[in-house]
Design a protein that fits this description.
Layout: H1 2-28, H2 37-48, E1 56-57, H3 68-77, H4 89-102, H5 112-121, H6 128-144, H7 147-157, E2 159-161, E3 164-165, H8 167-175, H9 184-193, H10 207-220
Parallel strand pairs: 1-3
Antiparallel strand pairs: 2-3
Family: Belongs to the glycosyltransferase 51 family.
Domain Glycosyl transferase family: 53-220
GO cellular component, one term: plasma membrane
């Protein structure tokens, strides 16, 4: 009898979680994402270290972003974003081959969709549970959102500096501009910081960042213009 009650509670809990996650994805298909778990986590870190809390974030639509911005992050982070369904199996396979042949540390290779799912719905950290949930939420947003919406949320929520989230906040803090006025080179420079935006700065780029920016600009020539939502 007790076992049946426990199983019933487990089934009910799983059902509630399943419905609530789908509901959250549906809601964020239409409304801006003003706060993410990462933003809260960084604020708590700053408080714990007795630092001033920094949180710069301003939501803007894709129409108010420069056309080069999505192209730049695709060139830098996920060149097959428009053609895959959330997971770049070619990149995963290549990372595994590089690891086996060269003994190198296995690269992350997360797609823009995976990064969006992680930033918006999950906590930071590395565990099989979190990776499983990341795959689950990636599947949901790829199924329920358009590529344009995924990119819009990504460019508004991604960490782009110390306490800086999204392209508008980055443009204002690091360039003194509205995002719509960023140049093609500015967009490439921002994209160049994304592997580690708290280490690499788009405000004061060093020689390595300049070199990486030029490489991204070169790759941008092979990336098609980001399509408008139909």
């Amino acid at each position: 009898m007790i076992i049946k009650k426990i199983l019933k509670v487990i089934r009910w809990t799983i059902g509630v979680m399943f419905v609530s996650t789908i509901l959250a994805v549906v809601i964020y298909r239409f409304i801006p994402v003003y706060f993410t778990p990462l933003m809260f986590s960084r604020c708590f870190e700053q408080i714990a270290e007795n630092k001033d809390v920094k949180l710069y974030h301003e939501w803007i639509s894709m129409e108010k972003m420069p056309k080069s911005m999505p192209v730049a992050v695709m060139a830098s982070e996920d060149q097959r974003f428009l053609t895959h369904h959330g997971f770049d199996y070619q990149a995963i396979e290549q990372a595994a081959v590089d690891h086996l042949e060269g003994g190198k540390k296995l690269r992350g290779g997360s797609t823009i969709s995976q990064q969006t799912a992680k930033n918006v719905f999950l906590w930071q950290g590395r565990s099989w549970v979190r990776k499983g949930l990341e795959a689950y939420f990636t599947f949901l947003i790829e199924s329920m959102w358009s590529k344009q919406r995924i990119m819009e949320v990504y460019l508004n929520s991604i960490e782009m500096g110390d306490g800086i989230y999204g392209v508008q906040a980055c443009a204002k803090r690091n360039f003194g501009l509205d995002a719509k006025n960023l140049s093609r080179s500015d967009c490439a420079l921002i994209a160049a910081t994304l592997p580690n935006p708290r280490r690499f700065s788009s405000k004061k780029p060093g020689p390595y960042m300049r070199k990486r920016t030029r490489e991204i600009e070169r790759q941008m020539r092979t990336i098609p213009a980001f399509p408008k939502e139909h």
